[in-house]
Amino acid sequence: xxxxxxxxxxxxxxxxxxxxxxxxxxxxxxxxxxxxxxxxxxxxxxxxxxxxxxxxxxxxxxxxxxxxxxxxxxxxxxxxxxxxxxxxxxxxxxxxxxxxxxxxxxxxxxxxxxxxxxxxxxxxxxxxxxxxxxxxxxxxxxxxxxxxxxxxxxxxxxxxxxxxxxxxxxxxxxxxxxxxxxxxxxxxxxxxxxxxxxxxxxxxxxxxxxxxxxxxxxxxxxxxxxxxxxxxxxxxxxxxxxxxxxxxxxxxxxxxxxxxxxxxx
Length: 265
Prior knowledge:
Oligomer: single chain
Strand order of the largest sheet: 3-2-1-4-5-6-7
Mean pLDDT: 86
Helix content: 40-55%
């Protein structure tokens, strides 16, 4: 767009002052990093919330989208292939997958909340199963097909102590550890990054906090006094798959209104 072109011209001038001989090559590389190339994108947990927003954004970006969910969506986009299956059993839908997957986004993960004295061991195990073990199972099964990048969804609760979050904090912390180790193991062929949002106003998110009436109070706890829209979290994942993030791996991007880092007043 116009702003990017103007910025590119300014950067090119700065480069020429330092090293005119290499300015053209470096300028070409910089221009290419801002362009999106078509990719085969598998989105797990695609039927609702962030996953569904990512389906729509990825289609709009011109990618070939394969959407995976346990239940059919309320409406199916015409420009993607929708797969009904459970991520814990990749063999059941393996024949519906493409030969190569350039981008994989893993969105599933049960959020378990509650005070420690009321949590049951099976609830903690369920949170770990859906967030970590199912991601491990799916990615392991897809290794021969994977290239490009993987994006996993963590939570601000992984690194920020919050009451009633023991189960989900443990699970998301495990997912972050898995993701960073995976980034090291799969480099340089596949990049692996994570997005860690705060509460997003999805159907599941609102049900956890008691509905929309609680949103103003929760927003007040964030330095930006707002919660990220579903589209923001999805677009962050799409960016991590893009050529603009070609040098990023093993990173955790926090879309949390400043909650994890800032203390005001």
